[in-house]
Amino acid sequence: MERITNAMDAMLELGHMKNPNDTPATPVEAAQLWYDVPLSGLGDMTDTERRTLGERLKVWLDESGIDKRPTVGVQDAGIGQTKKLMPHTILSLNESNKVRQPWTMGTYGQGGAVTYGFSKATIVISRRHPDFRGDEPDRVVWTIVREYDTDPEMDVLPTYKYLVGADNEVFELDPSLFPDLDHGTRFIHIEYDLQGWTGPYTTALWQLLNAALFDPVLPFLVTGYRSKEKNYGSRIVTGNAARLARPDRARGDIEIAHTDAAQVDLGEYGSVRLEYWVLQRPEGSASSSDPASGYVRPDSAVSITLFGQRQDTESRQWIRSNAELPFLYKNIIVQISANGLTAKGKRELFAATRERATKSDLRTEIYQKLANVLRNDEELRRLNNVEKERLVQRSTAASSEKVRKRLAKFIKTRLKDRTRFGKGGSEAGDGGRVRRPPTRTGISKRDTDDSNLLSVPTHLRFERDRLRIYQGGSAYTWVDINAKNGYLPEHDDDLSFEWASEGVEAKVRVVMRSKLLGGRSRWFFEADPDAPLGEYELQATLITANGVLTDSIIVDVRVPQEAKPRSRGTEPDTGPRVMWVTRDYWEEHNMTERSVGYVTVDEETIIFVNRHYHLLERALGSRHLTPEQIETRAERYQFPVACALWLQHEAVRRAGGKAPSDEYRQEELERLAEAVILASDPDVVAAFEEGGG
Asked: Which residues pair with 304 in a beta bridge?
């Protein structure tokens, strides 16, 4: 990915050389100025426009003789280099060539140089653009970079050296030998370690490129010259953001059930933009596979990007645990765009090599804000309930009332000494979260149609006259603006806030605003723990072509409420629902014959138990058993296994980041299930009772 973003930088540098008076502040602005990329991104370009531009940056796979390590090529139609310049640019390390070039992405660390360590050798070929050669002749310059072992006794990292001639310079060739290189640079990585992405480029690799370059500033072409790909042509990579903007172009039946975005103010660190999509199969689809699998892997459902390149990820399990969407989490894709961070924010968040985000307080704050937005999106909660009912219908039957009551008693006993008390703030049990009402049954889908709305709004109105917020907590209100979708944040520069009392803005502030959809936007307020108590008036002003629009709201800052016990999931007196899952619905529940079951918790607790778990299937498979005996044995198995599933779920929740791996938990459940089956066998029970147990 570093090599590809460096190729984009070469094209942006050429754009700047041709337009030296332009001063774009970011690579995104540069691409809009010099390559006609729309303000809304690559998703709004036509197929022809994307291919025409994408063919100027090409990535390909070629034969190397080793199937697991193909040769990888990257070529750009950028500025190119000369014999004098090459050692100080694309062959240099830590020379800070791009520090004062805000229109490029490679302002951190060593960039594309990290690719050398994955290659047997790397051929570098470059030709300078004819308008910017200075006094140097038109030549194609080249060299080869290889790894060299240092003294094995020294136990140090290997070094990388590039080939030079007798004059201690890189080599030259006649440009006529390279008819397809008018200008730009070509890197050829021999025997590149693709680490499992060696299948045809049209599938896994194409998906990887779209995910890792989630929202690239420029499109690029990917193709292959190996025998397995000789008839496949090529595909254009535009990133997942563009693909999700136009799901109708997807090669498959995918719908966007819901999408929203929010701008997050981080004070001196700048801002980030949160955007998320919920994918689903359309009604009547024959496919039951994971709709998000064609975009992201389960371990990278959440991506932090910087100018389109993915820098950090979180898994689906993070969404499940933090957004409290136990049935919908597999369908959600999230992008956190860090383009709006200040220099200080980028230093705080990103490691020097741009390979990942650091485990900093800023990263924690960003993910907390994301969790807050997801938890308080009513449409997400509605879709979560829809998905829950769909899964429940694909389970065979609920447990008997007797099992449910026994579970309620068991859970109540276990929770007796574990009552979890609140920390103050806006919601008992979790200070700092936004207060939200329970999900209403039958809530209608949010209307985001903007056909009757205006291009330029005529009103801005808070839906509430006043908003209560506790010290150290947060809350939100809806704001009505009768403008087309996306008017905000597109016109954020025209929006301002003013408090009637001085000094309040330092302690109470608007920290997040969602994208205007259907004429409505959510505005999140946050109060510091030492925010002054009292009522304060905030006035919002939006300057438009129709005049100045303004409205105000009273923000009532109060002392945190006395903490109360927090209940989560089904009340113990009621008991959780326990559902059998048959093999016909394993795929829906992500189960196999070795899956014991799992627990989901939102407004209620549901325990799903695999009815055709392989050991249970064997135990109940005797032809000598009557239907009544099968049902009795199944119930004997279901109750203790449901108890164990709930206990493990609680233990994992309390453990947080110190929880054991999924593989370990699965093995523990299998051992437990085997013990339950053995203990519930009639012969074992009879022997136990005869022995006086």
From this structure: 312, 336
pLDDT in tens, 587-611: 878 889 999 999 988 878 889 999 9
Fold of 2-239: Heat Shock Protein 90 (3.30.565)
Per-domain boundaries in the chain: 2-239, 252-392, 397-419+569-690, 421-565
Contacts 24+ apart (CB under 8 A), 679-685: 680/633, 680/636, 680/637, 680/640, 681/619
pTM reported for the whole predicted model: 0.82
What pLDDT digit, counting tens, does each position of 63-91 carry?
A: 999 988 999 999 999 999 999 999 988 88
- Indicate if the alpha-carbon torsion angle 375, 376, 377, 380 is positive or negative: positive
Fold of 421-565: Immunoglobulin-like (2.60.40)
Contact 522, 274 (CB under 8 A): no
Sorted by sequence, the CB contacts under 8 Å of residue 383 that are 6+ apart come out as 257, 258, 278, 328, 331
* CB proximity list for 151: less than 8 A, separation 6 or greater: none
508-514 and 474-481 beta bridge pairing: unpaired
Token duo for residue 453 = 């709305």
Mean of the per-residue pLDDT values for the chain? 85
- Which residue intervals of 38-84 are DSSP H helices? 47-54
- Retrieve residue 683's tokens: 């012969």
Q: What is the residue whose two structure tokens read 């498959």?
A: 252
CA atoms of 194 and 68, how far apart (whole Å):
7
Instruction: Assess whether the region 252-392 and the region 421-565 belong to the same CATH fold.
Output: no
The per-residue pLDDT for 285 is 77
Classify domain 252-392 at the CATH class level.
Answer: alpha beta
